[in-house]
Every structure is written in C-alpha cells, then in structure tokens.
Amino acid sequence: MPETPQSVRALGLVCSLKPSPAESSSALMLEHVFDNLRAQGAECEAVRCVDFNIAPGVEADMGSGDQWPQIREKVLAADILVMSSPVWLGHPASVTQRVLERLDAELSTTDDEGRPVMVGKVALVAVVGNEDGAHKVVADLFQGLNDVGFSLPAQGCTYWNGPAMETGDYKDLDDVPEQVASTTAAAARNAVHLARVLKQSQYQPYE
User: How far, in Å, CA of 187 to CA of 36, rounded?
Assistant: First the structure.
C-alpha cells in the first residue's frame, strides 16, 4: 500500500488594497496558487488583509482594536504561508509591508527548543501588477519572510506583469499564460514537498 501523504495546511494572505467583495488580481492569483496546492493535497484558506484592522507596529498584539492576532493564529496553524501582493510604484503594496512588520514580532517568540515559531514553516510569494517590479517585490518578501524564519522552496514564487504603461490587470486576462501557469504549478508543488519534509524532520534546536 502506498504511504498516505502528510496533511498540509496553507494560509493565503491577499495584500490587495481593495476590500472585499471587490475583484482583485491578487486574490485571483492566490486562487490559482490554491488550485495547485489543493492538487497536491493541501487544505487552503484565504484572508484578505485589508478587511481587518491591522494596526501599525511590530508586536504580536498592538492592543485594543487590533485584529492582527486573529490572522496570526491562522499563520501559526498553517504549514505554508502564501503572500499575494500587487506592485505599486515598483514596490510591494503598503498592506504587504504592514504584514511583514507584524510578522517581525515572531523573531522573539520561540518554541521549547529556542527556535523562532515560524522556523519550519514554508513561504510562497505571488505578485501581480501592470507595471514593472515583480522581481523586486519577490526579493523584498523573500528577504523579510526568510529573516522571520520561513523556509523558501525552490522556485518558490510566481508572478505576472502586464505590458508597461498600460492598464490591463491579471483579472482581465481571458487565459493565464502558459509560462505563468507552469511557474505557479511548480511553486505549489515544491512548497508542499518542502512542508512535508519539514514536518517529518524539523530544524535542529537553537539551544
């Protein structure tokens, strides 16, 4: 009998500036990532961050009215974190940056063996935009997520940039370009593989 694959949970954070239920290219890109993650046996849940009051700061809980702790609990319960961000003026969206700043608190939150609590989790990045900047956004997110403790799978990103100085969006495409679709599939496949490896064999204790 073939061995049953370990269960894997993925949380997707949509960092669009558009609140629900507005259409969002970042949300659509995340759904395409989820399609591929589910094909690998992962359970998936999406959160549109702008629908929550994520207070500015670098603590796990910034006090009254801060809704980041609700999202944080979902991050802690997930094996894979997918951040889906638009490009604005060549940079990650402000919502994306705020999420990274809140995740910074996890550097000082450790498990019983001294590891930051995000060590052992996998991160994927998805980027959309009708301007240049996808590689920069991926680089910024990879650096921040890796600093916090997330592991990055081989080819752990996917992106789409529209033609320069035009107004087309990912959500307006009739069909996803084959190169984008195959890149998304590879990123999802590698992320699930790495998540299962880390669940079986965690990083060595820090203490």
Answer: 9
